Amino acid sequence: MTKTRVSHREHHELGDVAWLRDYDQATSLAAAQGRPVLLLFQEIPGCATCVNFGQDVLTHPLMVELIAERFVPVAVFNNHPGADARIMRLYGERSWNNPVMRFLRSDGTELLPRLANRYDPLALHEKLSAALEALGSDVPAYFRLLGRDLLIEHGLSEGAIFTTPCFWSGETSLAQHPAVITTDAGWVDGEEAVQVHFDPRAVTRVDLNAYARAEGFAPVARGSFRLDREPQFYLRKNAVRHLPLSAAQRTRINLAVPYRNSIPDLLSPQQSAWLADPLLQRVSDGETYRQDIRDSWPVLKAQLASAHEVDLRDSSIEP
């Protein structure tokens, strides 16, 4: 096993995570940094399940960032001999198997049962959160919000629409319900309305309708919802509109702005760094927040890298 970090640039099965390839190095680094080890057993090259795991689970930018920030990730190729096979024997894993993940202390002992036979982002999100909690570490707010986004992506949320006297205030009022994941301002048959996604495990539709009625909003039984051209009105007044954001982040930040709550607490370290970048607003049109975060994240990363290269070149030729 080499000490080189590898990722999707070499193997699609590994997603966008920069994996170490040396188990001993990973455990030593974890001990020095006080972080747990994320150990992936993966078939390289792999079957469709292995490739899909890499591309569907290990590419969401907030998932990738949490792994890089809080874990020491190391990949073992389960169909390779030598050092890879040694680690396979150490943990009793099978060769040529579908992806398996283990969550370890720096001494190699397990924090919780391995992840196997589930190949979706929500399963990994739950395990990563549980591993941090097992160590007594906090789960960052941006990562908790990602879990709510994943409920929507996997069809585990439910939707509802409410007419409102003002959809901008309607968004913030409805977002205060703890079961509401996202809000969007728009129109139904010419009336201002707010569309929400909510967690049905946390509230029934009947109770959510009752909450909305108490706030002065009426549930919509039928009608086609049309998104307004300026959703998340309060967020749009803030520089965070230039950032790639998940849907759940957009909703929470749109609520935080008028109530003067902390916005940085809702951002990942990379998002916070971009927000502080003096070139951010130069490269963004202010609509980045509305785009799919999986698409807008690499675009902004490339734009800022290019802008900094131009600035560096220009500064080097100044008289």
Report on the architecture of this protein:
- With 319 residues, the protein is an alpha+beta fold.
- The protein has 2 domains: 128 residues, Glutaredoxin; 163 residues, Alpha-Beta Plaits (2-Layer Sandwich), CATH 3.30.70.
- It is 41% helix and 16% strand.
- It has 12 helices and 9 strands.
- The strands form 2 sheets. It has a 5-stranded antiparallel beta sheet with strand order 8-5-7-6-9.
- A hairpin with a 2-residue loop joins β6 and β7.
- α5 packs antiparallel against α6 and α7 packs across α9.
- The termini are far apart.
**Backbone structural class:** alpha+beta
Under the CATH scheme, which class of the largest domain?
Alpha Beta
Q: How many separate structural domains?
A: 2
What proportion strand?
Answer: 15-25%
The strand line-up of the biggest sheet is: 8-5-7-6-9
Throw out a few tags for this protein:
319 residues; alpha+beta; Glutaredoxin; Alpha-Beta Plaits; 4-stranded mixed sheet; 9 strands
Question: What's the quick description here?
Answer:
With 319 residues, this protein is α+β, with helices and mostly antiparallel strands.
Topology (SSEs and partners):
Layout: H1 23-33, E1 37-42, H2 48-57, H3 61-70, E2 72-77, H4 83-91, E3 100-104, E4 110-116, H5 121-134, H6 141-153, E5 158-163, H7 167-175, E6 180-188, E7 191-198, H8 205-214, E8 218-219, E9 225-227, H9 247-256, H10 269-275, H11 280-283, H12 293-317
Helix pairs in contact: 5-6, 7-9
